[in-house]
Amino acid sequence: MRPIIGVACTKMYFPKNDLDQFFYVGSGYVNGIARSGGTPLILPLLTIQDAPFREMIESLDGLILSGGEDPAPHLYGEDPLQGLGDINYERDITELEIIKIALELKKPILGICRGMQILNVACGGTLIQDIPSQVPGALQHAQRGSRQYGAHKITLQPGFVADALGKTEVLVNTSHHQAVKDIAPGFKVTGCAADGVIEAMESLDGLHVGVQWHPERMWAHDDDMLKIAEAFVARVKQLKLQATK
């Protein structure tokens, strides 16, 4: 019984076509789910009135929130700073709605990069808008080139990621300039870089997990990193089985 894992996507225009918008998500997310025994399902970023978000989330056993643009700062009570990057407010409001429903329905969530950030915002946390200008002595968190390979180490505390990887220190890739600042109520920090930037978090009940790096870019060649996908799918499958008893 393969659990159905939804992957939240975003929109884009193709070159020379500024009329039609297209939904997209990196293939690494869906390939990792499939390799780990899940059935991936891409969730469209609907912006129509009365979009059937509840029906969409009800059809899933778990949810992955993918990477992308910066969340809008006013969503966590801040004004935009000079270092803020591109935002996609339509995506923000859509993902906040599907996260709210997923939390209500107790669906497991794995947030990756932006996905971890928007999960933190949805649950009442805040973000560092721009690491280079706000974190003194920060590491390079937006590595240049070879983004499918590790760039800096992080230290893991006990929790989902440490259990999945079987390690307390791991080399991760890095492709972000924002990070979690104040962690949301009901969550705990489970991983940090040497400069103090939060790299992993999870809810106190272990149902919702966020990682700041991009394991989906690594797990094509790194079987150790694929263990994150395998552990998430296994957890979702276990909860699905328990719900049917």
Automatic annotation (TrEMBL):
Spell out the PANTHER family in the cross-references. Answer: GLUTAMINE AMIDOTRANSFERASE PB2B2.05-RELATED
Do the record's keywords include Acetylation? no
Coiled-coil residues are: none
Q: Which residues cross the membrane?
A: none
Keyword Hydrolase attributed: yes
Q: Which UniProt keywords apply?
A: Glutamine amidotransferase, Hydrolase, Transferase
* Signal peptide as annotated in the record: none
| Taxon lineage | Bacteria, Bacillati, Bacillota, Bacilli, Bacillales
The GO terms this record gives for MF are: gamma-glutamyl-gamma-aminobutyrate hydrolase activity; transferase activity
Name used for this protein in its record: Gamma-glutamyl-gamma-aminobutyrate hydrolase
Q: Which Pfam families match?
A: Peptidase_C26
- Cellular component GO terms, alphabetically? cytosol
Q: Which GO terms describe its biological process?
A: polyamine catabolic process
